[in-house]
Request: fold
Amino acid sequence: MTQLSLSRDGARPTAAPAPTALLSVRNLSIDFHLRTHILHAVRDVSFDLLAGRTLCLVGESGSGKSVTARALLRIIDPLAKVAGGSITLAGPKGEVRLDRLGADSREIRAIRGARIGLIFQEPMSSLSPVRTIGAQIVESVRLHRPMSVADAKAETVRLLKQVEIANPEQMADRYTFEFSGGMRQRAMIAMALACNPEILIADEPTTALDVTTQAEIMDLIKRLQVERGMAMLMITHDMGLVAEVADEVAVMRWGRIVEQGAVDDIFHAPKDAYTRTLLGATQRLDRASTRAAPPTDGPPLLSARGLTKAFGKKSWRGKTTFALTAVDHVDMDLWPGENLGIVGESGSGKTTLGRMLLRVIEPTSGRVLWTPNAAQADSTQRDVTAMGRAGLSEYRRAVRLVFQDPFASLNPRMTIKQVIADPLIVSGTLTKGQITDRVAQLLSLVGLDPTAMERYPHAFSGGQRQRIGIARALALDPQVIVLDEATSALDVSIRAQILDLLLQVQAKLGLSYLFIAHDISVVRYFCDRVVVMHKGRIVETGQAEQICTTPREPYTQALVSAVPNPDPRDKRMLHRTRFVAP
Amino acid sequence: MTDAFPPQPAAHMSRPTMASTPSAPETGPAISPLRPGDDPSKIAVAGQWELIWHKFIRNKVAVAAGCVVLLFYFIALFAEFLAPGLPSTAQPRFTYAPPQPIAFFVTDDTGARSWLPHVKGYTMSVDPASLRRSFVVDPDSVVPVGLFVRGASYDLWGLFPTDRHLFGPLDPTQPMNLLGTDRLGRDLLTRLIYGTRISMSIGLIGVVSSLIIGVVLGALSGYYGGWVDLSVQRLIEVISAMPMIPLWLGLAAAIPVTWSPLSVYFIITLIVSLLAWTSLAREVRGRFFSLRDEDFVTAAILDGSSQRRVIFRHILPSLTSHILAVVTLAIPTMIVAETALSFLGIGLKAPVVSWGVLLQDAQNIRTVATAPWLLVWPAGAVVVTVLAFNFLGDGMRDAADPYET
Reply:
């Protein structure tokens, strides 16, 4: 390791706290040289990583938090340049200035993995698909520690055992795709820990995982950190998770750290307005909804009876060779004016259920029943599953869908006006001028400037695009809007705005929402009743407040208790109920 | 948060003030524009083609290639006017005459230089042993040339009778062969220019016919899937499994000799286009497959759009730029195929002039040795065109999806 002379630019602003700073970042600035402009992605960021402590870098998308973390290991984008500041790694042989090392120099490669471990967000893309998990860990062990292959294999098994993978000897010979998401992340952690790093950087380590898996992974990371006395830098957008694991918090916005301090101070005495906004948005969603639930004694607007979808393969003789029941005999009702939440982890069949209700996916068996005039207590039911083309297009005018991905769901080649007007043009009842007026009216209804209707989707942010998607859904005066994870791709402050917008629209137009989500805290804020799904079946149905506070079923209890609580004085996730599949 | 309204141009901060004055409240990420006067709202209302154009013009090689292609099509369009003579005019006095260099000044007897654009004339010598005539450029003999001269009369596009040429000898009876002549003494430059018209248009017409077959079958195959897809794909496989050259040979041999050169020309384009539609159909099918499951297509179906509206209003506009790129890459294969067929003598035949027909003259080593220009210029034209099309097509393919990051 090369010894580099130290020249501090500027004195340290604060006296170093009692534990020694393993890594200190001072006035780090990173610029992205784009085609038309320079983006100052990180500006004057300073922090210390202390042994045995966790610093959470929290911020919304585009705040520069990931770039900062990657800059520590010099794995930033080629477009990005470190414009100023210093990154100093303290060590037994003196200090090393990481910002002065070449991006592919021998020195930085000796530090990566050996002294600083890194866990990525998406384990599927960070692990090689063509080599076994064991081989990949053996490789990273042998890169930094002189060891025979046999010893490295034994070490790998020991590491896998440490990250709580059952049967580590056998699992080491499996491939990435044979692991579940949680197990992949465990393997990734094992790899990051292979060489006993002093510092662990976790870049959104649980964002791609379900809440129960997230809780287990965070338990594991926390336990290993305490055992080994590592310093940890955790990047996240989730204030709840911050409250659960952090010792120190740095809140980032637009490339700057706006507030930095102990976790309790940040949560209970925030000074910066942005921190308060972020906390407010998180905590508000964690409270019960304030609106009165509509009556559920009349005829339901939309019902599912025994709805089943089996994905399978039939041989050419018509024999079923493989089948997976994604949705299994689901019964549910939605009353007029009601907000019904469908909650489940990935693979629970909630999205398939939503698509079947719209007949985007044809159900294998069961019926969807629609009562067009339920609000007038007229209980003439129509069977959606038996509808022909004309009936279906009438039904789809009344029941609309808002998609999860605000980028994929708008045709990039059409202007906003064309996107929103498309259902109006197809229904063919309005003249051109009337359509323009209606689009303008819809845009102001969802809080967008009507003069922006000639713009293309690429001119809008994610939250704005989701508003456009909502305007499209509202264009035909629907009775029901199915929100398929409509807020899960959005930042927390935007999410709260969109949910409030949906509630405002509901108050004005009196429609019903079917809210499909994996995030139970959002459901509590938004929904009247909740259906909890697990492996294609409905586990529990009840009032939102009851499900979130006093769930009856063990699965629901496990799910609810695994949700991080945005209060560092009440760490719910670490005292959660565990669910063992019967 | 300023989420509710379209983004304002973010705070334009310059580097020096950035660190020192945090006085004004920030409204977005810090940005320093590289060029003054960039207006983000212009991009906001820019449609697909405008974005593609922005991306395309940054690829300098592709832009240069595009200019070359346009130049060739310009030559093809105004071939009669641009060519100094007529392609079939034989000059028995000047067979296998070498290229005449062009010069702009003459020096008279007194040593004074004066402005006179001219080419050098020829002197003929007869080899007493083989009695073969050979021509040498005579530096003393001067043939004055000029712009917009009168020459052989022709009908421009078969419509406008005229005898003006862009350039040529002032006295039409004098020889001007800038690229030399062939065995009948026909001017190679003239024939090359006329050949450009046939060779470039055969690529275009061939591609249009294969485009129609390819897009229709590819779209059906990709949108409906199932047995439609299965049968179209098997058809493509059968066609691509055919050995192309023997197939062409067979088909070309079946053309009756009594047919007019024009109908032979069309039938050859049709045969050549058999090559390209399969790859185009596969490309379109793949795009349809991926677009069919896009959220915005599902949204269009839920909006009540008919299948026709979904295909033509929502899916095809996303494809046109890709199709254009694929077509650009398909044209050179057509041109090469035509050249190959004509060179082998089974494609176009005289009196039609194409680059392949011109290359036929350079088939034996003796010709290549005595008149290398007969090989160099037509082959060079083919190479330059094919390269230009490939560079242009590559650039268009890269620019075709301006929304991907």
About this structure: The beta strands of chain B are 30-33, 102-107, 113-126, 133-156, 160-169. Chain B is about 55% helix and 15% strand.
